[in-house]
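Complex 202.
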Amino acid sequence: MKMKSEWEDLEQKLQEALTPNRYRHTLGVSYTACALAMRYGEDLGAARRAGLLHDCAKCMSNSEMRQMANRKKIALSAFELEHPALLHAKLGVHVARDTYGITDAAVLEAIRWHTTGKPDMTLLQSIIFTADYIEPNRDKAPRLPELRRLAFTDLNRCIYEILHDTVDYLSENPKSMDTMTLKALEFYRNRAEEAGALKQGE
Ligand code: DGI
Ligand code: FE
Ligand code: FE
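Predicted structure with 2'-deoxyguanosine-5'-diphosphate bound:
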């Protein structure tokens, strides 16, 4: 019998664990991450793997997530319990390791920070954060055509614009903002200012 490739195996398991829409998004992120990896010189396998797995915990219910955290003794803050949408990134690290056999720490860290971003992301983290936002199935965010182009011309500036729009969107409900999202925004705003791409106060 022919051995299944790593990719066939991962894709089959993910298709079983995710809803059809989430699985389609997952493939979109994986291929978009590959394109960015080709553009910026990241390891293609790591980008493909992290793209496939970034949302591997997304289709767990809130109670399943809480049970898993208890079982694995993963500390959850009151803030995380109140905003379960943020939890799939933290728990995704454990699901990727324990259920999908991912051992590459760089891939696990890219999963960990894909929702909020963080200051000074590695290239792989930057690629996954960006691919998650611009992959072809996304259609809700404003100015996607502009950001899709920017991702391939100036990745750091693109990250700044994504964080800016995310914080703008979350500002309707400021208490829901994760401090890491704000720290990331500040870091990438400073970086864009230093690069001369932004005028003070823009
Ligand atoms: O899992 P996806 O839907 O593919 O994308 P994601 O992991 O980026 O999650 C998207 C959601 O995360 C979106 O509704 C915005 C939200 N988000 C990003 N930063 C924050 C946040 N939600 C809260 N409450 N706080 C944040 O700082
Ligand atoms: Fe996600
Ligand atoms: Fe996603």
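Residues 25, 29, 54-55, 132 surround fe (iii) ion (ligand 3) (CB under 6 Å).
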